Amino acid sequence: MLSVTADVFRLAEVFTISRGSRTEARVLTVRIERGGVTGWGECVPYARYGESLDSVTAQIEALPAGITRAELQEAMAPGAARNAVDCALWDLEAKAAGKRVWELAGLPAPGPMTCAYTLSLDTPEKMQAAAARNAHRPLLKIKLGTPDDMGRLEAVRAGAPKARIIVDANEGWTAEVYADLAPHLVRLGVALVEQPLPAGDDAALIGLARPVPVCADEACHDRESLAHIGGKYDMINIKLDKTGGLTEALALRDLARAQGFQIMVGCMVGSSLAMAPATLVAQGAQYVDLDGPLLLAEDRATPLTYEAGQIYPPEAALWG
User: Choosing from 95, 141, 232, 239, which is the catalytic residue?
Assistant: First the structure.
């Protein structure tokens, strides 16, 4: 039996990026029951990719109940719908075999990793205050992508003088803006910039001096994306809702590394169930941004553990 339900998790505070604000995370939970064993997975439909709760639910409900992971890769395109089903099938297989998913996938036992904490887009004053409250964290991620970004960045650095900083422009800059800001990004110790240009208009990155590494997010979904981003980006951000699940995410990671890309593993704003499979992909990544649950006011019954700036792999009671 395959079922899908919509769940809502309240956010601890309003979360804003250049595309808008939200006060809750709306996710879809897939459960697959076979032989008395139930596996589950979560996805976060994203309007930027033409997805909605209704459209993704319809895609999932159209699948045959007995579909296998291999069949799933052919039956569905990369995206949120395939992600939730793929991760539920991995969980189901692990529970049926009495093993952990990392064992089934032939991966080393996972360990804790330094995890970024995202600061919402706000006024410089409020972002400085937020940075000060989180200055103990080793890695902060800043949402930017507006004409007033330098003031915000200076404010965050003032609030958290020792933290490493990564910046997400959410497709909000141009090549000229990046070039103008680059010296200041270097001065302020910014480690990388995510998706500064729109994914469909990023050819200007070819041959552009990149003193601060540039990471592809919206421009990289799965292995097929790699053919279109060479020479433009130094790193890719792997998100399971883009790859369509753990199966493709692991394959994308390995191929990207072989082609010389560094790896970041990120997330949409979801619960610990959505982050759990991504912790396996994130092993050995240069940057881990799986902080969705830290932004929530409520979570799954067995949440992930976040401690001293690190994220720990899931307990079997959560997933895998």
Answer: 239
